[in-house]
Design a protein that fits this description.
The protein is an all-beta fold and 328 residues long. It has a domain of 227 residues: Methylamine Dehydrogenase, Chain H. It contains no helices and 28 strands. The strands form seven sheets. The chain has a four-stranded antiparallel beta sheet with strand order 1-28-27-26, with no helix packed on it. It starts with 9 loop residues before the first strand and ends in a 10-residue tail after the last strand. Keywords: Repeat, WD repeat.
Length: 328
Amino acid sequence: MSRPTPSPVYTLRGAGGPLNTLHFSCNGGTTPLLFSGSGKGAIHIWNLNTRRPERIIEGHSGSSVIWVSTRESADNLISQGRDMQVCLWDLGEGRSKVVDSLWTGSVGFCQGSLLETNPGTCLLAVAGEQTEEIKIFELPSKTPVCTLVPEDKLGMVMCIKLWQPDSGAGPLLLAGYEDGSLLLWDVIQRSKLSHVKAHPEPVMCLTFDTKRLKGISGSSEKNLSSWILDTQNNLQLQDDVTLVNPGVSQLCVRGDSKLLASAGWDHRVRVFGWKKLRPLAVLQYHTDMVLSVAFSNHQDSRQRLLAAGSKDQRISLWSIYNEGPDTG
């Protein structure tokens, strides 16, 4: 018998705008937190024990917040807004202070990507002022590292993922573009390593599993495109997943490499087994487009959650497939 359709374990309301981005901070002995960024410029810091906002902060002059993340700990927040600013926050000991900011010049919706390189330092990749360029900075110094611009006309950069391979080589960056292309960049050499056409439409989102060297991307059409990175750093297209309805806002792989979640324009969250891309569940709660999905990083696997943020201004929290063997 098939399992009954799950329901959210609880929901969070009061964000006051569409939920563009979600980020968990649940490891260690501190209070489990969920950060959310809204289309009205507010960042909510939700206490997952009380299920209420611990703090609400604003640093983008009312402009839509498109990305939030943390550096090293939950006290070091980074946020990106449509005001073309990336803000670095100090949230320690009750503070809510912007300690620095970085102007990107980007008018698009491309979310930044963060990679911790050494204790206290990290790399930040963001879309640049020119539509096809990606700029990489070292933080907290804001030192420019490089600018990556493809030779071919691929249109606007839509999504990026910065990561460090186990081989010891320099950081690599995956980027999806407006013409449906995926490019793999060598950050140190400032060179393109591989290029594939993954979609006929703009690449709206991508996620990459650095353990399995496998990724997946989505667009405004019905197909998710999966791909792998071979030992020569070549992108190779693999299987497609055909969705019932077109349009995906975001994709996320759980930290144990077992589950994939998609945020659908059809108001639904879909869950797949990451290994074989087998459909596992369709989560129905939201009344408008789902814009963001994130898996929690609880150390205890039984506490793991999936969060979904929607244009309907609500966040749904789900507890699914936290037990048993590989889900396939």
